[in-house]
């Protein structure tokens, strides 16, 4: 996405994008898009991203956007009025705040305040990425299959990556970021990988009702209807520093998520799990997808840290990163890329 933004800048630099098609958090993502987030900065980025998505038929087609009402269930209502008002100002009529009576049919432990979004939905991030890559190629970006090779800083501040010199290199290597930094002698401090897991379930034959997309701050449970007529359900996995090439699958966690969902919604007739997904994503000490300079270097950056939910903020975050990079080059989802040294 960042490369795509840079390729559209006036007088865009020559860009080279190295793409590794290994399965990653983007391909595994559940793809939810919504405006409300607990963190103010992430809420701003998510709101701007959703506004752009809703305004662009092209992006909706590329992403496979399907509108689906989203309920964010919160334990503490403090500050929600202002947050909802700010989102409503940007996306009029798309959000409302409700008390627990809106969840009368839900079996919940404790009180909830509910943020209801009517313009939220879900996307297919892997397919969206492929469409963006196709458009990057049409815009003249050189796309090279491969992983981030040996990376060193040259005496003049330029970066050598995989035997080629670049004015600037950005690593958008997702959960491989700590590994790539460490392997090349740079500090990985502030970056960690974490397990991401969820399951896709059918409904019992003859059952038709499914809940809206939701996340529950108290239990951590999240779920959404799927395009195939089933339900995606998951809980946060508390497994840190996992190997992104071999992310763990916790069957007990996924069974617990399904059990919690059916206890919360007795009306739901959940069937068997048709697919269980195990992936990993990169978390930063300063959370959220953003451009960050690698300490001790001049022209090496990362663009990662989505913490399992970067699809919600990717459009606005990539715009901010492209603006920050100015006339220099960029990167892709799983690789390094940049502006080759000496090219205009």
Automatic annotation (TrEMBL):
Signal peptide: none annotated. InterPro entries: FAD-dep_OxRdtase, FAD/NAD-bd_sf. Residues 24-320 form the FAD dependent oxidoreductase domain. It comes from the Bacteria. This is FAD dependent oxidoreductase. It comes from Labedaea rhizosphaerae.
